[in-house]
Specification:
Keywords: Membrane, Transmembrane, Transmembrane helix. This is PEGA domain-containing protein. The chain is an alpha+beta fold. The protein is built from twelve helices and twelve strands. A hairpin with a 2-residue loop joins strand 11 and strand 12. Helix 3 packs antiparallel against helix 4, helix 5 packs antiparallel against helix 6 and helix 10 runs antiparallel to helix 11.
Length: 386
C-alpha cells in the first residue's frame, strides 16, 4: 500500500516517483553524453544524443498527456496517481496545482501527512498564513503521527514570529461537498472553487455560503467560523420544480370551463319537473273543468232524483281526490326535480369529480314514477333508491 511522504525534507517513497521526471545532461570528457532519467544512466555518443533525447522527451510527453487533467478525472483517480501528480506540480513550481491534488488525495484516502505537504506547498507559494494553518491542522489531527508532530509544531512556532498575518484565532479547514459534484462554492459572494474543495484560515465570524450548479437550485447555508476548528458543509443539489406561469393557470374568460362543458345533462331531473308539471295540469283540469261540470249536473236534478244525485256526488268526490292527488304529486315531482338540478349545479360548482356525477346519475336512473289509482285514491308513486 502506498504511504504518502512529505515534500521538502522527506521525499515521497521511491516507488511513487514519476517516470516522466526531469532529465539531466552531463558532457563527459570522452565525448559521450550521460543522460540521467528516472534514476537510470544512459550513455550515448554525440551523434545519437540528440535523437535519443528527442525520443525520450516524446515518451515523457506521451506519459504526462495520459494523466488526468480535469477535475472530474482527478476525482476519479486513485491515491497513487494523485500523489504522483502532486509531486510533479510541486517540482515544477506549480504549488497551487499541487495543493489541489494533495487535498483531493487526502479526500480519497485521508492521511494527516498530506496536510504537512499542503503546508510546505503554501510556504513555497509565499503564503505563510495558510502554511501555518495547515501545520496547526496537522498538529491537532487525532491521527497525526507522533514523530512528525514535534517537527510540525516547531515549524508552527518558528513561523508565527515571521508571519503577522497568522494568529491562533484563525479558523481551521472548511471542506465543501455536494451531490452532484462540481458545484460552484461562494463564501460571501467570493468564489472559492468547485466541489469537492476547501477553504482555510478564515477569521472567526458568520459567513454566508452559496453553492450553484447549472440546472439545479442554489444551496445556501450560514457558516459560523470558530478558531482552530474544522467543519464540513455538504449539499444535495436539487433540481427546480416545474413552475406554472400565470397565463397558464388562469382560464380563458371566452371559453367555458372544461367541467361545465363536459357535465352530463340530468334528463331524469328534467323529467321529474316535466312529470310534475303534467300532474299539476291534470289537477287543474279536474278542479276547473270536470268537478264544476258535475256540480252543474247536480243542480239540474229534481229533488226526487236521489239516486242520480248520489251517483254524481260520488263521482265528484272521486274527481276531487284525483285533483288533490295530482296537485300533491306535481308538487313532489317538481320539488324533487328542482332539488336535484340545484344539487348538480352546486356539485359542479364545488368541483365534484366525474365519479360523483356518475353516482348521482345512477341514483336518478333508478327512480320510477307510476300512477296509483284505487277506491277513493288517485296519485303517483315514486320508487327508487335514495
Amino acid at each position: 500500500m502506498l504511504h504518502a511522504g512529505v515534500f521538502g525534507k522527506q521525499a515521497l517513497p521511491a516507488d511513487t516517483s514519476c517516470p516522466g521526471g526531469p532529465a539531466k545532461l552531463m558532457d563527459d570528457d570522452d565525448g559521450r553524453v550521460k543522460l540521467f532519467f528516472g534514476g537510470r544512466t544512459v550513455v550515448f555518443k554525440h551523434a545519437s544524443a540528440i535523437a535519443a533525447l528527442t525520443l525520450l522527451l516524446t515518451f515523457s510527453h506521451s506519459v504526462s498527456a495520459q494523466q488526468p487533467v480535469t477535475k472530474q478525472e482527478l476525482t476519479e483517480a486513485d491515491l497513487s496517481t494523485l500523489v504522483n501528480l502532486a509531486r510533479e506540480a510541486y517540482e515544477a513550481g506549480e504549488y497551487e496545482v499541487a495543493i489541489e491534488r494533495l487535498l483531493l488525495a487526502n479526500r480519497r484516502e485521508p492521511d494527516p501527512r498530506l496536510l504537512i505537504n499542503v503546508a510546505r506547498s503554501y510556504a513555497q507559494a509565499d503564503n505563510c498564513a495558510l502554511s501555518l494553518v495547515y501545520y496547526a491542522a496537522f498538529v491537532r489531527h487525532p491521527a497525526a503521527q507522533e514523530p512528525l508532530i514535534a517537527s510540525a509544531q516547531a515549524a508552527l512556532d518558528e513561523g508565527k514570529a515571521d508571519c503577522p498575518a497568522y494568529t491562533d484565532e484563525l479558523g481551521g479547514r472548511i471542506m465543501f461537498e455536494s451531490e452532484p459534484m462540481f458545484a460552484r462554492v461562494y463564501i460571501d459572494d467570493t468564489f472559492i472553487g468547485t466541489t469537492p474543495t476547501e477553504s482555510a484560515g478564515l477569521a472567526p465570524g458568520t459567513y454566508q455560503v452559496r453553492m450553484e450548479l447549472d440546472d439545479h437550485q442554489d444551496f445556501t447555508q450560514e457558516l459560523e467560523v470558530v478558531a482552530q476548528q474544522d467543519a464540513t458543509i455538504g449539499a444535495i443539489m436539487e433540481t427546480p420544480s416545474a413552475e406554472v406561469s400565470e397565463s397558464d393557470s388562469l382560464p380563458d374568460a371566452t371559453e367555458a370551463p372544461a367541467d361545465e362543458a363536459q357535465a352530463p345533462v340530468n334528463y331524469f331531473a328534467y323529467g321529474l319537473v316535466g312529470a310534475g308539471a303534467l300532474a299539476l295540469g291534470n289537477g287543474l283540469v279536474f278542479d276547473l273543468v270536470v268537478i264544476p261540470g258535475i256540480d252543474e249536473e247536480r243542480r239540474q236534478l229534481s229533488p226526487d232524483q236521489t239516486d242520480e244525485y248520489a251517483e254524481l256526488t260520488s263521482r265528484r268526490q272521486s274527481r276531487a281526490n284525483i285533483a288533490i292527488g295530482s296537485y300533491v304529486a306535481g308538487a313532489v315531482l317538481i320539488t324533487g326535480g328542482v332539488a336535484w338540478l340545484v344539487y348538480d349545479y352546486m356539485s359542479a360548482g364545488a368541483g365534484s369529480d366525474n365519479s360523483q356525477q356518475d353516482d348521482i346519475q345512477r341514483r336518478l336512473g333508478s327512480i320510477q314514477v307510476a300512477p296509483a289509482l284505487g277506491q277513493g285514491v288517485a296519485g303517483v308513486v315514486l320508487g327508487g333508491r335514495f
